[in-house]
Amino acid sequence: MYGIRSALSSRATLPVLLFAGFLLSFAIPAYGLLDLYVQLIIIYIGINIILALSLNIVNGYMGEFSVGHAGFMSIGAYVSAVLTVKVFPYDQAFLFFPAAIIAGGIAAAVLGLVVAIPSFKTRGDYLAIVTLAFSMIIKSVFDNIDYVGGARGFTGMDRLTTLPMTYFWTVLSIWVMRNFIYSKFGRGMLAIREEEIAAEMMTVDTRRVKALAFVISSFFAGIAGALLAHMLQFINPRMFDIIKSTDILIMVYLGGIGSITGSIIGATLFTVLIEVLRPLEMWRMVLMPLLLVVLMIYRPLGIMGLRELKLFIPGHDGACLRDKPDKKGIQDAS
Amino acid sequence: MTYSIQQILNALQLGSIYALIALGYTMVYGVLRMINFAHGDFFMVGAYFCLISVTVFGLSFIPTLLIAMTGVALLGVLTERIAYKPLRRAPRVSAIITALGVGIFLENFTLALSPYPKHVPSIIETVNWNLGGVTVSNLQVIIIVLSLLLMAFLHYIVQHTRTGIAMRAISCDIGTAPLMGVPVNFVISVTFALGSCLGGAAGMLYSMAYPVIDPYMGIMVGWKAFIAAVVGGIGNIRGAVLGGFILGGTEILVAAFMPSTYRDVVAFSILLILLIFRPYGILGKPRAGKV
Fold this sequence. Notes:
The structure holds two protein chains of two kinds.
Chain A: H1 2-9, H2 13-31, H3 36-61, H4 69-87, H5 93-119, H6 124-144, E1 154-155, H7 163-181, H8 184-194, H9 196-201, H10 206-232, E2 234-235, H11 242-255, H12 260-276, H13 284-298, H14 327-333
Antiparallel strand pairs in A: 1-2
Helix pairs in contact in A: 2-7, 3-7, 3-10, 3-11, 3-12, 4-5, 4-6, 4-10, 5-10, 7-10, 8-10, 11-12
Chain B: H1 2-32, H2 39-55, H3 61-84, H4 92-113, E1 118-119, E2 128-131, E3 134-137, H5 138-160, H6 162-172, H7 184-209, E4 212-213, H8 217-232, H9 237-257, H10 263-277
Antiparallel strand pairs in B: 1-4, 2-3
Helix pairs in contact in B: 1-5, 1-7, 1-8, 1-9, 2-3, 2-4, 2-7, 2-8, 3-7, 5-6, 5-7, 6-7, 8-9, 9-10
């Protein structure tokens, strides 16, 4: 047991494991190690992890209640899809795909900045409304743009979201967001969640922290949207409605707020459960929310709420986060 | 002139339905400081109760209304007892997520039982009156008058009865109220019953005005009513009514002058702009932050 633990905590182990995973993600489709259905689910899990973690930044770490995450996702999906289909040379789409993904992320991030501006003045339920209204507006706008097919949807993308591609972007997203969470700004977010006024007195530049949190959160939502668009090869505005936003919320709160591990577990569990329960047909969608309600009653903070696997904590000892923030802070902030 | 009066009537009809639902959100929020996201689905269940009562039992208007209201009120009280009560001391987001879960459960449960959209047969024979070029249907009159009556009834309960005083006491300070002998659990149950029965009534009125119902109808209408409650100032009863009528009015106004696909964009943009100038809603008061 001790041997495993010390091996895991060595500095070289993690990059080696990640690289092995990357090679595996090439090998699985090349040699058909898993059947296509399982591969598809793994891609879904990767996309959902990016989504859940990016929403966790705003909802879990900063203590806001954003309910329009699917809106940012749709921007990323549409921008990247238009780029690969209509702008970039079609036969070399594979080469330009990363650029399209990043462009989708940036477009979503710009909108995230717009949403961040009302958050300077309002919090809580009123900010929830702002995010909700924004996502509805975005959906309606896509419904009305004929260039991208309006309500009929947009198609013509190649299947560019492969397993290695998803793996690479998922790991990269987790890495960047984890570094953001443990940066100066990440600490600022925690301070805002616990008590905004006190944070401001302690020289946290609340406006800048909020803007940055929204920008990063929406950037990665856009990236997830771009990946999804090139996996399904078809998008329409209805895919990104409130129901999608609710799904992401459930993943975050199922796994636990303020926890990278939680978001990974939540997204994986949600995606796998939906597939495993498929034999129940219609009743699986009845069972899923029931499970969520029962979980919330017995574990109100989710599976990993405010706790973290040591792997994600810098320095591996977690001394800086050993004092758990008290629950009251979260209660007031949201 | 007649056209605009016609549109005002439409706005009143839609607005009163939004206002009834928004009242449910605001009542629960005022007492528990919790957003009951399942409320839109209570509204949907109300419409289905109405459908069952009309098609299966063949009841007339008043019994159907009573069934929809009491049925949904019971549903609200049960939901509170089973799902929300254990979370009263938990972080607020947990209660909100539970409410979302309850809402999704209700949607999919209804979907599993009746997968296709249903048509609600008309309970009352529609009569159109022509008043100087303006067409008024008895349905419109019933919806508007009944909504106003229910709102007046709610106002009476909250302002002039002992339970209403207890509600306001809990809203003021949920920690001190039980020390003054206020039966908190009972009053919260009454609040849920009242809020939900208004939602049930709204569901029935909605299914009379727009007779095709499906299990997901509560989502959009529910969220819109929630927006109405926030615009009016959540937790404020008069604010919810005002917000409902403002939202209904904007939607009809936009639909009258622009293609209907733009309705949501413009309506929501107006509400956003309103929130920028009044961040706590029209009648809401900002709560001072304390450290």
